[in-house]
Amino acid sequence: MDAAREAEPQEFDRVLSSMCTEPHPVARDAAERFLATNPGDPGTYPQVARLERRAISLLGDVAGLEAPAGYVASGGTEANIQAVRIARDRADSRRPNVVMPDSGHFSLRKAADVLGVDLRVVPLDDERRADLEAVRRAVDADTALVVGVAGSTEYGRVDPIPELAAIARESGALCHVDAAWGGFVLPFTDYDWSFADAPVDTMAIDPHKMGQAAVPAGGLLVREAALLDELAVDTPYLESTSQATLTGTRSGAGVASAVAAMEELWPDGYAAQYERSMANATWLAGELASRGFAVVEPTLPLVAAAVPAPLFDALREEGWRISRTAAGELRIVCMPHVTRASLESFVVDLDRLRGREHVPLVGGE
Ligand code: 0PR
Known about the structure:
Bound molecules: ligand 0PR
Shape: globular
Oligomer: single chain
CATH architecture of the largest domain: 3-Layer(aba) Sandwich
CATH topology of the largest domain: Aspartate Aminotransferase, domain 2
Order of helices and strands: HHHEHEHEHEHEEEHEEHHEEHEEH
Distance between the termini: 44 Å
Number of strands: 13
Helix content: 25-40%
């Protein structure tokens, strides 16, 4: 009867493969204060509606968009679905298709399924990025959307966004960038990924991942407000006249916490976090490689390494919350809650479980 009162939420200290993280304290506080508000009804909850406009303005700063439009979605899934919906509704074709690299998140498969568009999945190059020649071959007059991933789910790779945007332009399609995970680290790298770097039309960029906001706080950004009109449906009995979101009632917690986190952390706090996370990823990759595991070099704070299945299972038995790539590699996402100390104790367990004498590790941060 007291299950909810007695249960404890998941501790984060052994969570190594999630893209969620502990919200920043200011984000947690804001989430609690706005928990019962509904930004889906701005006529009744104008304060949270104002905060949502602020959230979009801040997301625009992060993603290089001067006059941003969009909204705080439930996550990357909703943002991706809505981007496909915009493109489909805007296309002239009666059989529109979406071209995406094989690294595209499975939410885009949901989008294609729900929206009845053809999904053309193209292979990757040997750096695990969209193969541009394959994209060019897949695109035709019915292509409504070309998708690029800026920070892929499995390997943290960044597709050549300017080239993909150019291909989209040439074929009269829109270009969508999925920066759901990467969006809050990429500003501190040399990658071309943002609205400022390329004629990108829509973007998924999630405060509830690297942005350190509370779940649910995804972001859909669009270059022009007119693109959002494709999503608007009439809302006959609400004070606002139309609604562009996929969900109806939604918690203001995500909206308020996204604003709190971004006001606190953009840009210096996120820059420092990127440095810490990247240093941890580089350190872990080195430790794994020195033990003979085949490591996929991290280019963003995400490490994949081929670890034998029995060892992977034994680590899970120890309580490490780890997951695999589709190819079976161990995948560690260096989220803000993943500290050097927790990675060190992970490596200690790994050494013990593979039956080797414990080798003292040189400590870092
Ligand atoms: N786009 C990319 C590039 C993603 O990595 C993800 C989520 C999404 C879109 C979808 O975002 P939402 O899950 O917010 O709708 N990638 C993670 C994954 O599939 C999601 C995740 C997060 C899984 C936390 C587990 C977990 O504990 O691995």
